[in-house]
Predict the structure.
Amino acid sequence: MSLTFSNVHFSQQPEKVVYMSGSLMRNLGLANRKQIKLRLGSDVVSAFVKPVGRSGGHIYLSTGIRNQIHVPRSGPVYAYSPEAGEIRLGPVVGVLSDGSADSASPFSSRTGYIRQLLREGNKKNVCLCLCTARH
């Protein structure tokens, strides 16, 4: 298993294809793979993988893949391969908070704190998922 820093980008391609820079494919042990399982949290999708001629660690996700595994944003993330042909993106951290049905802000008086959590999570390459019990 190798943990590798990478950048996720989105493409408008409708098919289920993951494009990866050649160096990232080698780091994750995917050099000869044609198909992979991509995971984010508990979501998983099978997809074809194709190399792209770009240096560094870059992953390009098509619209079909992004929607199926619910990738919230593009940007920095860690990728690792716990077993052959499987890539996990993350880490994913869920935060459950209560809110007020009367408030215009979904997290009531904690909205400012929740925004701060999101900013800090982005700086640390953590995928934060925030919700209230009614969501």
